[in-house]
Write a structure and sequence with these properties.
With about 260 residues, the chain is mainly α. It has helices at about 5-30, 40-50, 55-75, 85-120, 125-130, 135-175, 180-190, 190-220, 225-255.
Length: about 260
């Protein structure tokens, strides 16, 4: 028995998957420059953006509060408790805001997209669209891609504000910070680049979420079990890619 045969099959399967994903990505991006189904686009804006706002806002608020507590406790070891507002706004706008929002939306939206499109695939509704001369990429994928790329920066901007507010509430109500001094230090320390870099990341994360949800749903097979596997794969792959993209974008945007 050739011990290298399983390794070779795994490598070939991986290369085939990368090829299918690249082709799907190219076709989807090219379709974005053709006429768009307006109703589908508005519908996806509501599903991906508006209805994700509560979960993003709640996670941002508690993340900001926990961050303020941790910075205060860590800074207390070196007599540097006063840096809480500066580090909270820096951490929320640059990293935690976009990453936490991306992971929350990935769990909520990528799974829903994969389940919906996967169900349409296994029940042959996508084949029916093709039969009716409707391009399934333009009808199903393009509105979700555009809505996710546009909605995510808005969600992150709102989440950043709520996260900073969470740190403000904890610092002023539990840690004894003065309200006016906390706000002044926050505004003075925050720069334009801090906010914009987080919004760039959010747009990239939105693209990843919609792409992985659509791709896994579009290629699901095997009935209900296949749809379940596609949903899991969409969430896992989008979460991993978000963290990898975050490192890559951070190294590019803040390169010395």
């Amino acid at each position: 028995m050739n011990i290298f045969a399983p390794i070779g099959r795994a490598v070939l399967a991986l290369l085939a998957e990368i090829g299918r994903l690249t082709l799907f990505l190219f076709t989807s991006v090219m379709s974005c420059f053709r006429p768009i189904y307006g109703y589908q686009l508005v519908h996806q804006f509501l599903r991906i953006g508006y209805f994700s706002l509560p979960v993003v806002g709640l996670t941002a608020f508690f993340t900001g509060g926990a961050l303020a507590l941790q910075i205060y406790l860590g800074g207390n070891r070196y007599g540097a408790e006063a840096i809480v507002p500066q580090i909270v706004v820096l951490g929320i706008t640059r990293e935690l805001g976009p990453v936490i929002a991306g992971l929350m939306v990935a769990g909520r939206v990528a799974a829903a997209i994969a389940a919906e499109i996967g169900t349409m695939r296994v029940t042959e509704q996508i084949d029916a669209l093709t039969t009716l001369a409707t391009n399934p990429i333009r009808y199903l994928v393009v509105p979700r891609l555009i809505a996710a790329v546009v909605s995510m920066p808005i969600l992150v901007a709102v989440g950043d504000s709520i996260g900073v507010f969470g740190g403000y509430v904890v610092a002023t109500q539990s840690l004894g910070f003065s309200s006016g001094i906390y706000l002044k230090n926050t505004v003075d320390f925050m720069t334009h680049q801090d906010v914009v870099s987080g919004l760039y990341k959010a747009a990239a994360f939105g693209f990843i979420i919609a792409l992985m949800g659509c791709y896994n749903g579009f290629h699901s097979k095997g009935g209900a079990q296949g749809v379940g596997a596609a949903t899991t794969n969409a969430v896992v792959s989008s979460s991993i890619l978000i963290l990898a993209a975050n490192y890559l974008l951070t190294s590019i945007l803040f390169a010395k």
